Amino acid sequence: MSPKPDNIPLEEIDMEFSARRQKARTQVNKLDRELVHDEPERDWFFNTVYDRANNDAAQIPWADMAPKAQISKWLSANPGNGESALDIACGLGDNAEEISDAGYQTTAFDLSETAIQWAKQRFSDTKVNYQAVNLFEPPQPWLNGFDLVNECYTLQALPPQMLEKSMQAIGALVKRGGKLLVYTRLNPDDKNADGPPWPLLAKDAFRFNEMGFRLDQEEHFTIIRGDRKIPHLFAQWYKLT
Ligand SMILES: C[S@@+](CC[C@H](N)C(=O)[O-])C[C@H]1O[C@@H](n2cnc3c(N)ncnc32)[C@H](O)[C@@H]1O
Questions:
Q1: What average pLDDT score do residues 139-144 get?
Q2: What's the gap in Å between 149 CA and the centre of ligand 1?
Q3: Is the pLDDT of residue 3 over 60?
Q4: Mean pLDDT for the stretch of residues 136-159
Q5: 3-class DSSP string for 205-239
Q6: What separation in Å is there between the alpha carbon of 74 and the centre of ligand 1?
Q7: Can you give the residue ranges of every domain in the chain?
Q8: What pTM did the predictor assign?
Q9: Which residues line ligand 1 (CB under 6 A)?
Q10: 69-239 belongs to which homologous superfamily?
């Protein structure tokens, strides 16, 4: 296969991968919907999906195997110069690598030890410091520790009763004067979603402004998957306090 064009999800350009992904999506969705949606079960769910995948990325429904286009565009306009960055719940590492390539000294973590080992294996020459860490038990030096924090698709992957706690945990990792990027689906009807995932209500997506952040940029866009149009928000926040 010729090299993959940047930023295009692998399932959109490789038909064989796409067929395996569709099958896996059905199985993972079934597993997900049968679970109680609370914290221990969420941890078990993510660990199980990565462990069962057996190194086949088609089995990880959210893994595009490419950085997100909005994040790449933002990084082109805001390159790092050795500043510190943290990628939240990095999965298989594509966004973390993009942040590192843009000049940030990058740390990336995920709950799943399997995901972390997999990311290291995919990017064997990586400069990213990959670590298996739970968002709710960060190493103490990480608190208020990073110039740039990138959050992509984690808030919507955790049940609504964990949202406040998840936002607080993410916000706590940004330095005063640092930036926070949030990439998430938005719930178009502004009604509680029947997740998972749980696309954020607009009022919730903007709650970082009640947590010591100022909104500096917002981009609303739609991702088309088959016949589905999925509203998204990419926001840049600045930590005031
Ligand atoms: C929908 S995936 C998104 C992965 C990646 N950010 C991306 O955009 O491809 C959500 C990720 O959150 C991770 N995760 C869930 N709960 C977590 C927690 N408490 N601490 C750290 N990672 C967590 C999962 O293992 C999974 O990799």
A1: 98
A2: 14
A3: no
A4: 97
A5: HCHHHHCCEEEEEEEEEEEEECCEEEEEEEEEEEE
A6: 21
A7: 10-59, 69-239
A8: 0.94
A9: 42, 46, 62-63, 89-91, 95, 110-112, 115, 134-136, 152-154, 157
A10: Vaccinia Virus protein VP39 (3.40.50.150)
